[in-house]
Each structure stands twice: as structure tokens, then as C-alpha cells.
Amino acid sequence: TDIQVMPCDLSDESAVYELYEKTKAYEVAVWVNNAGLGNLCPILETDVHKAIQLNRVNVDAAAILTLLYAQDYQDKKGTLINISSWNGYSITQGNPVYSATKFYLSALSEALYWELKRGDKPMKVKLICPAATKTAFIKAASADKKPEEIKDYDNLFAKCNTAEEVAEFIYEMYESEELIGYADGTDYTFHKTGPKLPHTYNKSENPCLLIR
User: Fold this and answer.
1) What's the CA angle centered on 82, arms 167 and 21, to 5 degrees?
2) pLDDT (0 to 100) of residue 92
3) pLDDT tens per residue across span 101-120
4) Largest CA distance in the chain
5) Which residues make Cβ contacts (< 8 Å) with residue 29, sequence separation at least 6?
6) Of 64, 47, 161, nearest to 104 (Cα)?
7) pLDDT value for 73
8) pTM value?
9) Once rounded to an integer, what is the mean pLDDT over residues 65-88?
């Protein structure tokens, strides 16, 4: 099988559109939005320019590619896999801007799930929410921290999932009928579940979390 490599700066909106145009030469059975940035820093100490760049990659690029793929493949047996995070359903004190970006992707993916379901569309959407994973992501997100502020990565990684384990779980999710696949951030076990956010398609449910 031929492998096509298409480098792209996902923080550049025009480059994201150009990337998608290039993929139109192929039938894309599975589209995975996996790229993302992190910034381990409290809101009040966050560099605004870095926060904007993080949003451009985690939110803008993911939204553009999600919408374009969904609109083109809604009537085909394609699968869109969005990589959110355990932090896409919980606010993390040390990583709040990242959490906010992942909340966006979680909400967008759940909304798309309901539209596809209501329209009886063949396309599927999956939302993957890993917890801390044994990759270079956390170190990269801590690049601005002083050495004494950096956590013991070896101790952290002794508890969390490997990238290979997450990849195997993503494949399980691909074959399942559930929307959300997540790694529990407390014990790193994998779980499958349906949508979690209130929605207005089912009027018997309260459509707003603010109303108790």
C-alpha cells in the first residue's frame, strides 16, 4: 500500500484547507484528528500567544477538518475519529486552556453524533478520550517550566497507558457501536459509553447543565 505524506502547519488556517483539498484525490475511509498541543500552565500565567496557537491547532484545525469530512462523507460509510481527552470532560487546574479546547472537540463530536443519528446517516463518529499516555506530549507541554517544577515523568508513566494500548483501544472503538471511548484518569482502565452531554433532540432530557 502506498503511503502519502502531506506535511501541514495546522496552526495556519489556509494550510488546513489546502491539506483537505489534497485528500480529495483519495477515498478516505477513516479520518483521525489526532494532532494537538498542550500548555501546562495556570490561566493567570499563560502566554496569550501560546494559548492562541494552541486553540488554532486543537480547536480551529480540528473543527475545519471535522466539518469538511462530515459534510463530504455523511452519506458514505466513513468514520471520523476525534481525539479529545479525559480533560475534555473535566477541568484540569494545571492545564486549563488545553481542557477548554478539548471540551470544544467533545461537544462538537457529540453534536455531530446526534445529527448523523437523527438523519440516519451511514457515517460514524468516534470520540476518544485518553488520560495521560506514555508519549513526549507532557514534556513538550511543560517546555516552559523550570527543572524543579517538572513532575517525575517516570513515576507518572509507570501508571498510565502506552501509546500502543491506546491505539488498540481506538481500534476496538472503531468496531463498536459506542460514541465515546475513554481511559479513566484515576486507574487508566478503558471504557466505552454513549454521549454524555445534554442535547435538545430528546425533549424529555434537560437541555442545559445550568438548570438543576
Assistant:
1) 110
2) 80
3) 999 999 999 999 999 999 99
4) 54
5) 77, 78, 79
6) 64
7) 98
8) 0.88
9) 97
Query: Residue 66, SS3?
Result: helix
> What is the pLDDT confidence band of residue 93, given thresholds at 50, 70 and 90?
confident
Phi-psi region of 26 (alpha: psi -120 to 50; beta: other; left: phi over 0): beta
Q: Where are the alpha helices (DSSP H) in the chain?
A: 13-23, 48-55, 62-73, 96-118, 137-141, 153-157, 163-175
- Whether residue 168 contacts residue 128, with contact meaning beta carbons closer than 8 Å, is answered with no
In the numeric block, the cell 486543537 is attached to 58
Three cell numbers written together for 6? 502531506
CB 155 within 8 A of CB 134: no
Here the cell at position 30 is 477513516
CB 113 within 8 A of CB 195: yes
Contacts of 183 (CB under 8 A, 6+ apart): 86, 129, 130, 131, 133, 160, 161, 166, 169, 189, 190, 191
pLDDT digit string, tens, across residues 161-172: 899 999 999 999
If you search the block for the grid coordinates 438543576, which residue do you land on? Answer: 212
d(CA 68, CA 13): 13
The grid coordinates of residue 51 equal 494559548
Name which of 144, 75, 84, 149 is nearest 115 in CA terms: 75
